[in-house]
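Holo model, phenylalanine. Inputs:
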Amino acid sequence: MEDKIKNIQQDYKEKIDQAKSLKELDGIFLELFGKNGKLDQLPKEFKNLSPDKLRVVSPLFNQIKQELEKAIQRKREEVKEEIYKSLENEKFVRQPGRLQAKKRQGHLHPTTQLLNETIELFSKLGFERFDAPHIDTDEYNFELLNIPEGHPARDLWDTLYIDSEKYGIQPGKLLLRTHTSNGQIRAMRQLKPPMRVMIFDRCFRYENLDARHEHTLEQFEIVYIDKGVSMANLQYLSEYFFQGILGKDIKARLRPKYYPFVEPGAGVDGLCIFCKGKGCNVCGGTGWLELAGAGMIHPQVLKNGGIDPNEYSGIAWGVGPERMAMLKYGVEDIRLFKSGDLKFLEKY
Ligand code: PHE
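Output:
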């Protein structure tokens, strides 16, 4: 038995000495100490030994077991040392770490920049933020704005409908809002006139996508209700906004336009920033660009909001911040804004 133990010692000391990798050492360790390993199995044979023999063999076994374990450990350290040394000569270890690399600085999205500028302009005139939901009912988005079911104007604002039965709402009555005008009635019902609010953020449409149309778009809208508010306020506010964003020399022009929730309704044009009214490719030779929709709030809509149209009048005015950003920054395709393309975003 003693010879057997000593043979194991001899064999494995050599094997350990010659091992060159941590993997090899792991293998040797398993051969010796693993389940069914050489040193694991050996003590099973001790039961046949005489007590005298056992007194010699047992300590020898323990001593050699420890010796081999230590030898493996020592060799492990040696091998690791070798690995570190070889890595020191590798270039990448000496290169500066990521943390030392120059930090990249981000900035606000161009639409957010434009939206923030717009908010600041109207805040100066006492307008306050009013939030309306992105997912809304047919009632707030259409019905109460004089756009009943079957009204031809609905074609202008086709949208995506939500499977509403789950929520106990009649099918076809829950939708992604098509405009920020869905906040008009809510604002009227929650606040008492005189009131000046800004409603903004995402809107959604079921659109044929092209360079000027997106299914997900930003809108910014103001609702101003007081005694004696008139189209003159609309003209002034439109020009105030265009000049604040695009430059002092941009005039505004109101053109008759139909929206069911305003009367009269207006398309608001800004003097073309490229040709300043002379006529060019961008404005189609007219010298003007349509930038906003607006009008006097329809008396029925005021009533729906709980406001007496004989006492108060109001204006609503809405613009697309992305369209404005396209003009201001010379962006040719609206789809770039939400493309997540860093090369595009880094330019602004
Ligand atoms: N909500 C209209 C649209 O999305 C714009 C608008 C706002 C028109 C306010 C008039 C008054 O097209």
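The domain at 110-345 is CATH 3.30.930.10 (BirA Bifunctional Protein; domain 2). The chain has a mean pLDDT of 91.
Archived with the compound record.
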